[in-house]
Amino acid sequence: MHVKTVLILLVLALATIFALVCVLLTRGRAPSTCQHQSPAQEDTDGGQSLVFADLTPEEMAQVVRYLQGNLGAQLVDASRAKPSDSCIASVELQVPAKAEVLRFLDGGGARPPREALAVLYFGNQPDPNVTEYVVGPLPTPAYHRDVTVQKYGGKVPYHRRPVTGKEYLDINALIQQELRKAPRFLAACCQSDGTDLAILTTAPRGFKSGDRSTWFVLFHNVAGTGYYLSPVGLEVLVDHRDLHVSRWQLRQVFYNGQYFASTQDLEDAFGDDLLEVVRIEKPQAEAVLGSMRPRQPPGSLGPLQYEPQGPRYHVRDNHVTFRGWSIAFGMNPNSGPRLFDIRYHGERIVYELSLQEALALYGSNCPGGMSTRYLDGSFGIGRFAYELVRGLDCPYTATYVDRHYLAESETPKTNQNSLCIFEHDAALPLRRHFSDSQSLYYGGLQKNMLVIRTISTLINYDYIWDFMFHSSGAVEVRVHATGYISSSFLHGRGTDYGNRVGPHTLGTMHLHHIHYKVDLDVDGQLNSLETQDMEYELVKDPWSMQNTIERPYLRRKRLETENEAAFPLKGPMPRYISFASPNPNKWGHPRSYRIQITSFAGEHLPASSPMERSISWGRYQLAVTRRKEEEPTSTSIYNQNDPWTPTVAFADFINNETITNEDLVAWISVGFLHIPHAEDVPNTVTVGNGVGFFLRPYNYFNEDPSVDSPDSVYFSVEQDAGACRVNSLACLAPAATCAPRLPPFRYRGFLNL
């Protein structure tokens, strides 16, 4: 054998041995830790988004101190206040007027003064009422002004105030006092003395303005499980209208289809054997209907989403940037998540995108269920957005943000990690094509998006609020419902109102309606509303005149007035509805953004209902109105307890004003009818229970803006698709062979309960 050949073989053998040794030495060794890189798009906002920032705990505390020292009223901490006391109910950000903000953001004007909105309950005065004050400037308040009449056209009557935690405690004490009058009945029906029963409120509270009478539904309460699935058949009506707690009264009692004037009458009927008692065993924790405890030991780990080179988005204060997107985010303690100044590649698309209200309306043959119309903003959609569970509510490596609020207390509280931000791989191409004719190639782009998420727990239901931003320039808004169904005691013809889901449990039918405000500014503030849809026309074939063909054609229309742009919930609506700029794109079409709604809402409350005007936003799947500073929200927290004389009636916003080349707002309703079934136990799942809408560019650009994404993939038959320089997917093996840096799991979500 030639000496040169021997040397070559020897070198190859040594190289092989070296490679094998390296493999053996590294086998079993943990992969290296992922090295994070700074996002390509850093935050260049310069702090401008702070004009929308929620109040800090320090600012809230300053407002409380100012009000205590400057109103000349004796204020009691709301956590202890009786109805006959005066107290600070809440303090939140007063969002500056849009014109002031735009002068600051776009025109180089002065930063608007930072102000707070304080809501006070004045029960300790001759004319009890609710008053709202704007307090400023922050951080050192020096003035306050009463804005109640300016906002609502008059004083807010005291009976419209939301029920406080202290009021609920006093009601519970009254109910317990009354239950002690029926000991034999409670022992027979429920194996209880009443003290271990959970009490659930309903709303609204009566039949006319001024009423404050609430049905409360009683359930077996088993620690560690959802009591909502264990009704005992007992419901009580409490009149708590009087300012003096000692004058409150239990007005009626309901049990298993029968009504009684008092618990004493109920006990007497039981003693006289005039009552059909359904004896319910007290459920045990391991067998209770609503238990969410795992039934199997943990298995192997599922897929984990992580960023091998660190997040590609950037968060500073209340501002996030991602691949051309720029968003200011916040949380209203009542109405929940809200976004401002949404821009794509520097151009503002949306000035405000905010949740307005969540309605849950029930049916039942029990009084509590049949009278329930929860307006969740009155309870606090943002306030009850608790800490998110890392790795389940959001990806483990998401960015988590604290939210602060001041409600029913003089001390600010913090819901830690209650909003999350992350990039999500949808495991679906955003676009792709495999070319199998003429030239042979593959091109595509993965569907990655930025997600801003928070989750509110409103008594039994959990709402997952998502705002998603795509590289195509589209904004997606989605809500999923999960948590526990509410239930009634099964009796009589109960299945006319739902399905039986337990031995004595009726899963009551209900509808969820969600309302959003979308203040689009498409290529400027002045927009018009344009619709497009298809029709067929019967024409003769140009090449064969004796034959005809049904040819689809495009029907375009510009809507001129608010009345034209109010689309009833179940009425026809054009498939394409767009906010159009007066300016054209390269191809001569108005630069536009299209509203595309995904919803399967239940029926709206009949117009004949005396409380329908309080939720009149639910009449419409979409309504477009001229933007007005005096119409900031579609509802009010005061509508829940006086829906018969609503403080804000959305129907009044629609008054046939022109909407051509104006600053416009889209008000969007989405929802679904929920008829509970066996699979809703123990919990309603998110699958199939998600609704929302898209804001999609429609001739806004000259082409799909995602073509500029650095994630794009393209290779042809002539290229080596396995080469990293040709195909970025071929780079994954060396780039992503690392372990994510996972923070330790901690949870402190029970602290503020």
Integer average pLDDT: 93
Radius of gyration: 30 Å
Q: Report the top-level CATH class of the largest domain.
A: Mainly Beta
Work out the helicity level.
10-25%
Main pleated sheet: 26 strands, antiparallel
Unreliable segments of 5+ consecutive residues: 15-29
**Architecture of the largest domain, CATH level 2?**
Distorted Sandwich
Class by alpha and beta content:
mainly beta
The amount of beta strand, in percent, is 35-45%
Distance between the termini: 85 Å
Number of helices: 10
- CATH H-level homologous superfamily name of the largest domain: Copper amine oxidase, catalytic domain
Overall morphology: globular
Annotated CATH topology of the largest domain: Beta-galactosidase, Chain A, domain 5
Indicate how many domains the architecture comprises: 3
Number of strands: 34
Signal peptide: 1-19
EC number: 1.4.3.-
Domain Copper amine oxidase catalytic: 305-706
Domain Copper amine oxidase N2-terminal: 72-143
